[in-house]
Amino acid sequence: MTTRLVFVGDSITDAGRDRADATSLGGGYVAQIAADLAGADVVNVGISGDRAVDLERRWQTDVAPTSPDVLTIYIGVNDTWRRFDRDEETTAEAFEATVRRLLDTDVVRGARLIFVEPFLLPIDEAQKGWLDDLDGKRAVVARLAEELRAGLVPLHAILTEAAGTDPASLAPDGVHPSARGARLIADAWLEVYRGA
What PROSITE patterns would the database entry show (predicted)? Predict the structure, then answer.
């Protein structure tokens, strides 16, 4: 039986996919995972710009019908970013409440769950100021993964270590991964997927 892997999240998951084509995987980590797991049925329902509340608005139309065997949720960096570029704050508490509502649905109860921790590789002093806000979202993701005994991809630490003194090599704007960054995300996800 073919395993259906569904990935939901923001632009890092979306990665330029053609939303008019249900088979389009974009050009990021999801496509790399699909190439590595020949025979898996991979579905990408990421949408660029999504915050947790945006994901909640489309959960029943975009995610529930996919009937995943394995559901990967990768959300959080835009909940931080919008605070600093649009003055639209999402507290860690509000973020957690929204994600918990998503988790209390049939689509999640029937699937193996993998969380991907949001990351940020600050490329300037201004972005360094985002880290405290993102830390709250990262803590929520880690706590929910532990509580649900779900997989957790500890991406922030992995990419921070890999970037060393050159964060732009993995994420030119601090958020969106380069090809090498996407490869590292795919490898980190595969390690969690295969290790369970």
Answer: LIPASE_GDSL_SER (PS01098)
